[in-house]
Amino acid sequence: MKTRKIVLKAFLGLALVFGVNTFAQKSVMVGGAAMLPSKNIIENAVNSKDHTTLVAAVKAAELVETLSSKGPFTVFAPTNAAFDKLPKGTVETLLKPENKAMLQGVLTYHVLAGKFDSKAIAAAITAGNGTATFPTVQGGKLKASMVGKKLVLTDEKGGKSTVTIADVNQSNGVIHVVDAVVMHK
Fold this sequence. Notes:
Layout: H1 2-18, E1 28-30, E2 33-35, H2 41-45, H3 52-60, H4 64-68, E3 73-78, H5 80-84, H6 90-94, H7 100-108, E4 111-113, H8 118-127, E5 132-135, E6 141-147, E7 150-154, E8 160-170, E9 173-178
Parallel strand pairs: 3-9
Antiparallel strand pairs: 1-2, 3-4, 5-6, 6-7, 7-8, 8-9
């Protein structure tokens, strides 16, 4: 009993020194909903009002099962506003059943195999003298760099997307919310 009290006091002391969030993952609000680290990418994404287009696209591309699996994955998740920046009719065209392979390519270009939080990405950028290149699940490459304090992705066409919310931890990886859809060649 005495040992248990000592361990409890030590734990509470460490929690006060390092902060409670060091010991418990916290949820992040995205699209008006708490993104719970205990849920997977799909279970959280369906609750974000800012990601309804992405969720519809993932369903149309038949990627729900994949992004619900163990992973881990890093997903750069475009908001509805990001999809709205695409030329008129692009989203509607991609969502057609006959364009499923193209849609899968666009979506998997936003996914990295493995969990890369902002610290890991920043470390890769530092190691790469200001730029880091990441292979996507689609097979293309995304370049990451810092512009001031913002993490910016550059796609293979030269398009840029900024991370607006980083490190949204999931049970099977991490999501970084982005403000533009990145496109492969």
